[in-house]
Amino acid sequence: MDISRAYNRNYQLTQYFWEVSQAMPKTIVAGFAGVVLCVATALAQGPITNRMAPTTFRGVIVEVSCFRQQGAATVSSPEQIGCAKKRVAESGRLGILTEGDGLFQITGGFAENKYAKLTAFIGKSVDASGAEVVISNNYDYKSFEVSKVVPAKKN
Predict the structure, then answer these.
(1) Are residues 78 and 147 in the same domain?
(2) What sign does the CA torsion over 51, 43, 73, 116 have?
(3) pLDDT tens, 30-41?
(4) Whether the predicted model's global pTM rises above the 0.70 cut
(5) What is the number of structural domains in the chain?
(6) Burial 131-145 (b: 16+ CB within 10 A, else e)
(7) What is the Cα–Cα distance from 113 to 154, expressed in whole angstroms?
(8) Are residues 61 and 134 in the same domain?
(9) pLDDT per residue over 24-65, tens digit each?
(10) Domain that holds residue 29
């Protein structure tokens, strides 16, 4: 009688593991899809949740990661400008390092087509008009939606 129960239990366990192994690929695919969805959601720029009053910032156009690596003292150096142009071509992010307000990531129309309207201004002092915006799920840099950029006039 005990052998019969042991055999039956062994049969049940074998059947259970067979069913689990058949469901495993579906579980792995579902888990992978969940990870991809989470990453895509985290990387997507959310909608603008608040727009501040229009303003003009004076500052230097920089690529964010090059600026973080090389610092503020070299924003107009050939090395940092070369780094910035290379990174923008590879989907980097441009920002404006303002005089007194810090670094703002540039968003909106001037960020389209890999910042095509701004690449000529990398490493140069500019007056950028627009508005600071708050973007949902953006927790790293303040954002500035540029509407107009002109070279800064020398005082």
Answers:
(1) yes
(2) negative
(3) 555 454 444 444
(4) no
(5) 2
(6) bbbebeebeebbbbb
(7) 30
(8) yes
(9) 566 554 555 454 444 444 444 557 677 889 999 999 999 999
(10) 1-44
